[in-house]
Amino acid sequence: MNRKYELKERARRQEQTRQRIVEATVGLHATVGPARTTISAIAERAGVERHTVYAHFPDDRSLFRACSQHWRSEHPLPDLETLASIDDPARRLRRSLGELYAWYESVERELALFVRDSFVPANAEVLAEDAERLTSFAEALSKGWPRRKSVRAAIGHALDFETWRSLVRRQGLSRAQAVDAMVRLVESV
Questions:
Q1: What is the pTM of this model?
Q2: Residue 45 has pLDDT above 60, yes or no
């Protein structure tokens, strides 16, 4: 009996294995952090051998890229373009901070681990890209305000994850109070 070789089935299984590796890595990054995630732990959690992890992801950079893409798809940022298109600067800032702070609240545990482990080179690359997105967003939010340089700095400060953590977690403000405080800061500059 001749058996027809089906690359489609093999490719499907390979993609499933790859996805299990990505999900295992994201799970570990989100619970113990990138710095404490080992290839052995990834392999064990994904139900594969270490060499299989390396076969799919030959270096940290490719693994982090796949993981960050998966994590971002599971935890998308608010729609920054739509927020930036709001005409009134104060309304735009208030709504943007409200949505961003709600997102920070939903991903705080994971994001805190990612920031803590920013010394891991592949993780640092991903964090730098995220920081660049927020820098561009701050620039868009600062349009229409007077004294643009100081307003831009205040908005950049307001958008920062650590600012949110300080206001809400360490100072005990509610999300609405934190947003209000940052809008008032920007208006006062």
A1: 0.89
A2: yes
C-beta pairs of 161-165 under 8 Å, 24+ apart in sequence? 161/104, 161/111, 161/115, 162/115, 164/100, 164/101, 164/104, 165/104, 165/108, 165/112
Residue 5 pLDDT > 80: no
Q: Does position 179 have pLDDT exceeding 70, yes or no?
A: yes
The DSSP element (H or E) to which 95 belongs, if any, is: helix 89-116
Question: Stretch 83-98: mean pLDDT, rounded?
Answer: 97
Grouping H, G, I as helix, E, B as strand and the rest as coil, residue 79 is coil
In DSSP notation, 144-181 reads T-SSHHHHHHHHHHHH-HHHHIIIIIIS---HHHHHHH
CA separation for the pair 116, 145 (Å, rounded): 34
DSSP 17: H
Residue with tokens 């570990």: 28
